[in-house]
Specification:
With 332 residues, the chain is of the alpha/beta class. It has 11 helices and 11 strands. It folds into 2 domains: 160 residues, Bordetella uptake gene, domain 1 (D-Maltodextrin-Binding Protein, domain 2, 3-Layer(aba) Sandwich); 121 residues, D-Maltodextrin-Binding Protein, domain 2 (3-Layer(aba) Sandwich), CATH 3.40.190.
């Protein structure tokens, strides 16, 4: 080695040593720690009163989550304002995963109908669908139609003579009923009730001809023989009622929109927390005992990733919104 080349060689050795030391430091440094979760009890805020199907479903999931995480998971009901009270409460909660919204598809319907719902879809990150809530169209036993084709024919023959009940203005049943009117070019009068039970009384009594409600509710009423199921809003025929076609099968795919029960977290919740939440819910929904309870309620178990659920929310916003706009449906 010549005297001239020695300094250059020394610089190369120094650079190599520095790079080697730096790589060793990076190798020895601990990976950036994920946020610890959960570090305290977790709350599920639901938009309905205690004792209802959503409350029961949330408690099934809460118990299993508590067992898996070693932390209490509390179900807290905040009914009111068509689910808006519970939704806005969670939107304002700390984005640390310890307060979650366990809600229904009214979350999307409010955004489609309400001029100022007080929240945006962007205020939340979807976690997972828990269950699909098929919506059933039931008819009084004496109605001379046993399928949707027959119902449409009756309505065409006598516009405004038939009536359908829903479980409230702006409910899924109301929206689907008006959607059927539009899609089939018929006029069946809408009557809003305060819940499924109230409309059922008038359906059995013959004061109304048709009514929309949850499959779980009507499954408990069919044994009396006073009502019959016409169609269901569901992705596929239901296990409990394999002979009842979906609205899509009956020729009306645009109104084949089931409701759902699902979990959201506030926007900006750390991604690892969202993923942990989503993964655990999917495991729970896949458990045979949990699936049995979900079917017993008249629901269909789902369970999906945050990304998949986000796609459902986006598609539902378009589908429910289209029916709402075309029929000028507004909340009172």
């Amino acid at each position: 080695m010549t005297p001239r080349s020695r300094p250059m060689f020394q610089r190369r050795c120094l650079l190599l040593a520095t790079a080697t030391a730096a790589s060793m430091l990076f190798a020895l440094a601990p990976a950036r720690a994920e946020p610890a979760f959960p570090t305290k009890p977790v709350r599920f805020i639901i938009p309905t009163a205690p004792g209802g199907n959503l409350d029961l479903l949330a408690r099934v999931v809460a118990q299993k989550l508590g067992e898996a995480w070693g932390q209490q998971v509390i179900v807290e009901g905040r009914p009111g304002a068509n689910t808006i009270l519970a939704t806005t409460a969670v939107a304002k909660s700390p984005a640390d995963g310890h307060t979650a919204l366990f809600t229904i598809s009214g979350f999307v319907q409010n955004l489609a109908m309400h001029p100022n719902p007080q929240y945006r879809a962007a205020d939340f990150v979807p976690v997972s669908l828990v269950a699909s809530f098929p919506i059933a169209l039931a008819a009084k036993a004496a109605l001379p139609a046993n399928d949707l084709k027959g119902v449409v024919k009756l309505a065409q023959q006598a516009p405004d003579k038939l009536s359908f009940g829903s479980y409230g203005v702006g409910s899924g049943g109301h929206i689907i009923g008006e959607g059927l009117n539009k899609a089939a070019g018929i006029r069946i009068k809408h009557l809003a009730y305060k819940g499924e039970a109230a409309s059922f009384i008038d359906l059995v009594g013959g004061d109304i001809d048709l009514a929309y409600g949850s499959v779980g509710f009507y499954a408990r009423q069919l044994s009396g023989g006073k009502v019959k199921l016409i169609s269901v809003a569901s992705a596929r025929r239901l296990k409990q009622f394999p002979d009842v076609p979906t609205f899509a099968e009956a020729g009306f795919p645009e109104i084949n929109l089931p409701g759902w029960g699902a979990v959201f977290l506030p926007a900006n919740t750390p991604a690892p927390v969202v993923e942990k939440f989503s993964n655990e819910i999917r495991k729970i929904v896949a458990m045979p005992d949990v699936q049995a309870k979900i079917y017993e309620m008249g629901f269909e178990p789902v369970g999906n990733s945050s990304k998949e659920f986000a796609g459902v929310v986006e598609a539902d916003l378009k589908a429910w919104g289209k029916i709402v706009r075309e029929n000028n449906i507004k909340l009172d």
